[in-house]
Amino acid sequence: MSWTMQNLLNKGCKQIEQGDFSQATVTFEKLLELHPTNNEFCAYLGEAYFLNQEYEKARATFKHRDDLVLQNDPLTPYIEGYRGCILFEEQKYEQALPYLEQAIAKQIKEPEIYYRLGILYMIRGQLAQAHKILQQIDQIDPAFSYRKIKKLNEEIWSLTQHKA
Amino acid sequence: MLKRLRAYLWLRTAQYYFGQGKTADGLSLLRHLLSLVPNYHVAYFHMARQLGQIQLYDEAIVEIRKALTCTPHNSVYHTLLGKLLYEKGCYADAQEVLQHSLHIDPHNILTYNYLALCHLVQNDVVSYEKILRDKGVFESSEVHLHILLALERYRYQRREKNHELDHAKPAEQGV
Questions:
Q1: What is the span of the domain harbouring residue B70?
Q2: B147 lies in some domain
Q3: Which residues of chain B approach chain A closer than 8 Å at the C-beta?
């Protein structure tokens, strides 16, 4: 932590301790301005707004903190990707697309998400893109396509047996 | 003799370019090679493969047909032609070529896999199943990708058809 940052943080905390909430909000605003992605500073500012009875600002600051935590959480792209997979399975293809694309843009390593995006491109008639995405699965899990073929074959073959 | 040796070295250089992702350089070298040794069918084969990989199916088909003019009984070339026709979406033609290829070499699992795919995309699931059960799946990520896409396409079309039928039913009942 830099000297300026530490100094401002100490100053803000002291102002809160002394009950000078209005000044504390100014100090933490300055601190957050210098480090906009620091979720800890965001929490302090939210607290200062709350103590200063600026509830709307406090709510917005806490919401901003939630967003920051989620953005920095390494699992978030996977969760977004799985949201896309669920929408895909519900055949809400257009809604699924941005979730799947965003997840893959963040370089996740989950073949199921790549697979859904590849198939979605195929459904949309974007065959070259479908190939490009599906080819990446092999690098993550070389046995994935073999397992998938087996599963799909069983599913389709059970239909033909049912017919017979 | 020297001309052949030089052609071989150029072919290897072109293959090196392809491996490095320099497709245009490799193709240009193969074209030059073929202008000097027009019956060098392996060069046509490699050119067709590369053109197919960049989805230039018509051009690829022209090149593999040239290879087949030089050596009409090469089952590998027939299989590549069948694969290219399949990728282009000419399933009935592909099927015919692949069957001819199997007539020459009845042991090529890759050929069987593409033949099975031709059946599947034409909604003949029974023939697809029979071939795949008898012959298995060829160990190639490219084939796996084609099989997955064809299976998912079949699934999607089936689902869409069922969806249409479900929507048509109330209307019929209303009539």
A1: 2-138
A2: no
A3: 55, 125-126, 129, 132, 137, 141, 144-145, 147-149, 151-156, 159
